Amino acid sequence: MKDAQKFVGLDSSKDTVAIADSGRGEPRFNSTIPNKPENIRKLMKSLGNPENLLVCYEAGSSGYGIYRLLLSMDIECMVVAPTLIPKRSGDRVKTDKRDSIRLAQLLRAGELTSVWVPDEDHEALRDLIRARHDAREDLQSSRQRLVHFLLRHEIRPPLGVRNWSVKHREWLKTINI
């Protein structure tokens, strides 16, 4: 990690990014902007020299687009796992503004641990594996719903026919409900 002069915490959601920054003083909330590359680029330029900035944000469902954007601007960025962010006891109110201020504060204090950021190929493969896993779970749930529906209506497959075997699927085609 370089010697940054300004520490920036981002709390990103699907539509917006809340920004807080901290120099040597207390972190202050900067603004909330639309989560679009051109808006983020413009705001980062307004914060100062890229070599003096250190930015962090929580890993989330939006992926690593912000990380890659900031790297392309020569701004050092950390992606932090939400589970690795220290929490104060009793601090249960979560708002984008408070989260971004807290991230800037913890970043300045050196209390955040970054996660490994996959390259675009690894990220695409990870997304594909997750999508396949989700599809398999959906298929299993649908099969269970159908079997339970048939049982509730006292429709049972012939003896010796295992669920979802070829014979079972052929039998399903013959059912009139």
UniProtKB/TrEMBL annotation:
InterPro entries: Transp_IS110-like_N, Transpos_IS110
Coiled coil region boundaries: none
Top-rank taxon: Bacteria
One of the GO BP terms on file: DNA transposition
Domain Transposase IS110-like N-terminal: 8-151
MF term (GO), any: DNA binding
Pfam families: DEDD_Tnp_IS110 (PF01548)
PANTHER family recorded: TRANSPOSASE FOR INSERTION SEQUENCE ELEMENT IS1111A, TRANSPOSASE-RELATED
Identification of the protein by name: Transposase
